[in-house]
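Reopening this ticket.

The earlier resolution said the output was attached, but the attachment link was broken on my side. Pasting everything inline this time so it's all in one place.
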Amino acid sequence: MKSGLNTQNVWAKIAQRLTHSLAYSLMRPIHAIGLLYALVLSSWVFTSQYYGDITLYEFLLPSFILMFITYTSWCVFRARNIAVNLVDIVIWAVIFRVIGLAVYPILEDDAFRYMWDGYQTLTNGSPYAQPPSYFFSTGDFSDRLETILDHINYPDVPTIYWPTTQYVFALAAWIAPGEVWPLQLIMMFFDLVVLYVLCQFGKPLFVWLYAWSPLVIKETIITAHPDIIGIAFIWLAFLFQRKNIYMAACCCAFAVSAKIFAVLLVPFCLLFFVRAWCVFFMVLTLTFLPFIHHIPNILGSLSAMSEGWVFNSPFYIIVLYALPAVSLLTVKISLFCVFAVLGLALFYHYIRSKRNTIVRGDIIFMAFLLVSPVANPWYFLWVLPFAVIYPSLWAWVASCAVFLSYCIGLNLNDPALNNYQIPGHILVIEYGIILIALCLTRFNRLALFKF
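Inline output:
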């Protein structure tokens, strides 16, 4: 009897200590900040449960609050030299992403294309054969698939997404056809892969900025944009670069097969290793092999989408406004040449250095976005992981300012604007903020901004 009482006392003491330990842990500032962040993020769970539910202002207000919470607390922690526990940061990051799984894609309809592509790959073997409009009068689909088909943008153009992303879309369709949550769950997996790699390379204080970034959570988890697939593979390539160059080459191939943007970083990863380049091209070819007969359709779709599409690109708008007689093609070629010169200069500098560091991908991608005719908000995701390794104020400010690009005619309900047109003053504010941050980063006038 006495032995039983002693055992109960031991378990009571253990429970008491665990309770005290948990209470003490939850009293740490980072948990209070994380809880506040989670509460604000949860507001989207109630306002966005289907396409078109949420308004622009219901999206922007919580976004700016989340940004304020993250960056203000980060500045306080840095200014007071408060230690950051990486485990706490990652735990809260996972919680935020789980909350994001319960939110329907906000102010975006691209998920309908992803779901349709996945269904087409599973049923017909390829999403590239026919544009969605082909099935408007020829298909006999369920109500769910009919709804998806009706909401696809640019239905006359076959899909522009490359093979690796199509395999992911097909996996999501196999898990739950016509549902967006499998896509969000898979993108969360790739995002956590990026977070894992960054934990190997970066300091906890700067990993925090990526892990809690509203742009990452919104564009990767909630909206399920597949750019994170290419980003994950290219960062795995950096991780394998010094351990196994052939594994790095495979990862580079999957990255490029997911998003063509990744090709900008492949030379910095594989350098002059000829065998690694052979592996890269072999794996890249294998990813395209199931769709080999539809490569003309893939290239045609990319050409159709890039011919006259200009969005959130200040250089293009400035040049076309100042020189209306200049054709869009001339502007594209001129800006591409400028970027090519910059890229070659960076590569020359990189191969002359010790090459024991990761390339300045933040500079490469920001320059690329500035000369690109289209700079969608989720394209800035390519910059952020590099801002963990090479901290800079402008990169994180850009991740906030780019949310203003959602102020388009369609979301503003402004008949004076085209559906995807951003008002001029919004564009000036967006890139003006980034320019100010770039100047502060360059001159380091304020100690707080010395990253």
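Reporter confirms the inline version is readable. The mean pLDDT is 87. DSSP finds 23 helices and no strands in the chain.
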